[in-house]
Amino acid sequence: MSFSKLRPVGSRVPLPTEGSAVLPAPWAEHYDSVFVNSGTAALSLAVKLSVNRKQAPHTPEVILPAYGCPDLVAAVVAQEARPVLVDLAEGRPWMNLKAVENAVTENTVGIIAAGFLGIPERLFALRWIADKNDVALIEDSAQVFPPFSCGNGVADYVILSFGRGKPINLMGGGALLIRKDHGERLALGSVSVLDAPPEVRLSASAAWRVRRWLFNLLLTPPLYGAMERMPLLGIGQTVFHPLGSIGRQSPVEGLLEAGIEGFNKRRDISAAYSEALVNLTGKGWAPLAVECFAESAREGLVASSPILLRYPLLAPSRQSRDKALLELNRAGIGASAFYGQALPAIEGAGEFVTVAASSFPCACDFADRLITLPTHEDVRNGDVESVADILLGRCY
């Protein structure tokens, strides 16, 4: 067993760019941005705007996938709205479109389209459903960069997260992107929804730089492996946490630009995985990203494959997945089951969802069979070869 271990996800925090011209954000043509203290806070603000945009007769409802981060639920309930879960399409990280249509009621105010590890949701199809029912479309792009809506403005609101394990890691914070044609709808009486939270401007102080150095140091394989063996840290666990405060928080000057620049220069290891693991399909495994991008391309939805946050595979069964996880982690590869369960089964989230996990068979099957492989900058070709040797060399 290896005590040194590749982390499952997470890029290093860059140093802020200094003395250079500010580059326009990739979303600047279609969206205005509001920076806040977390991606969950940004999503909750989008829910609040959706609630105010359409007055529901009773408790406002927001549609979201039955497999996803419990922070989705936290963001919705923080605005006293009700999360309405829908099942996934079979073998896909996307919501079942027919289920979305059937879930819409007179109380529905928004649909959350959550991107998955670099794979965008089917936003054009969801836009059609949203327009048909006069509800807001929220692209949760916490795991996808750049957001799908950057070049087309298809979503009303877009969410970015800059926490650990996200495409751009700024040690926290998030952004709410608001489509430019929605500016006139934001006022609530004389107080803007977006001006209400207090604003904090971060700086690259000595304390911040020490924190950055320590954070990046802990991402190295020897130290990450040591931390993971400390149960009290709870690394890798998925539990529900209520949303605390929502605050305006501007990133360190030049840090977001440095993060975007670093992301654009990042090596994409996904092609190496796809090539090395091509023979897995004959054993009943599904290269999820390859299949999703191919399906989207056939429908004319994406021209190219974005960089993946993790490399996702669907195993033939939960038993096969769990055996693979055990062997890969023994070898020092940070493979993960990701969330591990459908949303109603995640600790703490179930009390806000009135439907049992068994009501979402595709989401449960997806959770049972999903395995993710690291794609960050520390993954080398030799690591990909080790993964292939383990997965192809054993009969799962």
Which CATH-level-2 architecture of the domain at 267-393? Alpha-Beta Complex
- The CATH fourth-level homologous superfamily of the domain at 267-393: Aspartate Aminotransferase, domain 1
How is the main sheet built? Answer: 7 strands, mixed
Q: Count of DSSP E strands?
A: 14
Keywords: Pyridoxal phosphate
Organism: Marinobacter antarcticus
InterPro entries: DegT/StrS_aminotransferase, PyrdxlP-dep_Trfase, PyrdxlP-dep_Trfase_major, PyrdxlP-dep_Trfase_small
Family: Belongs to the DegT/DnrJ/EryC1 family.
Strand-helix topology:
Elements: E1 31-36, H1 39-53, E2 61-65, H2 71-77, E3 82-86, H3 97-103, E4 108-114, H4 123-133, E5 136-140, E6 157-161, E7 174-179, E8 187-188, E9 191-192, E10 199-201, H5 206-218, H6 221-228, E11 248-250, H7 255-265, H8 270-276, E12 286-287, H9 288-298, E13 310-314, H10 318-330, H11 361-369, E14 370-374, H12 381-393
Keywords:
single chain; 396 residues; seven-stranded mixed beta sheet; three-stranded antiparallel beta sheet; 32% helix
